[in-house]
Amino acid sequence: MSMFCQIMDKSESGGCGCKIPSSVLTKILSQTAAANTVSDDRVVLGFESSDDCAVYDAGDKYLLFTTDFFSPIVNDPYVFGQLAASNAVSDIFASGGTPLIANSIMAFDPELVSTEQVTQMILGAQSVMNQFNVSIVGGHTIKNSQPLYGFSIIGEVEKHRLKKNNTARAGDLLVMTRPIGVGILANALKVGVIEQTDISASTLTLITGNNVFGRTLSESPEVSGLTDITGFGLIGHISEMVGLGQLDVDLQTSALAFYDGTESLAVAVTSADSGIFANIKKYAQDVEYLAELSLARKFLLHDPQTNGGLLFTVSAEGFETNRQAWQALCPDLAVIGRLTNGTGKIKVG
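Structure tokens predicted for Selenide, water dikinase SelD:
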């Protein structure tokens, strides 16, 4: 019998579900912000903005900086590597930029995780980075009981193409590019309700896919806001988009797409310590339910996504002008709501 474990065996809460709750992060940052006495006019966006990347003015262009790493949500180490890389470069694409170079961040216990498993993780990640000509130039690896993998990425963006996550306008449409429910599938895998072979090839392709479509969106001035859907769930990332409190969102659940099987699995595989409950608690004051919603759908709205799709706001005219071209590139594109003047509420209908 092999001495090595399946990589999910030591994963306490996989993927972006292992994020510290945003309420805790907010408290920590509010208590430490004053200690940062360095002022640099070239820093366009920092941690205070809760955006996808830090942005630095490098003259003709902006440099983009982001870091993402997490524990496994699948047992296949190659797929885990693909997810780690795709998720890391996603923040660059969500800012409208192009990834340039990457440093890897890795942790594992060599007595539990084999060199072959680690090799497959790296090869999976490299297959993604190769698509975008991103060089992995270094990294840091430590011993840890829970496997972790991810990257720190440097990218660039033309100044007029930079997209932020909190610049939506009243009247804009809210659009997402992929189904949600990755966290539910990960929970189902972890507790053994399903096997990876139960996940269809088309679903696996979407889950491990990339958000390079953000580069296309950055070309349109009609796209007012852009982010990716990750650990804080769909509701959490919508909340960030209306975080200034001057807009409401009319969210149409009938327009949402969920990964196959996730509605039937959601309640059964969601444990009390799930990131779903942390997200529900954090964003409860932001949500108003206009119609009865099943518990499964409520869980899916708050489900932490690993390498989730993009979420963007665009004028109705801009969407109609670009609809055909955008849907050719992104067939799962769906209008899920509209923004109105308001007080920061997400009205779920």
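Residues 96 and 215 are 5 Å apart (CA to CA).
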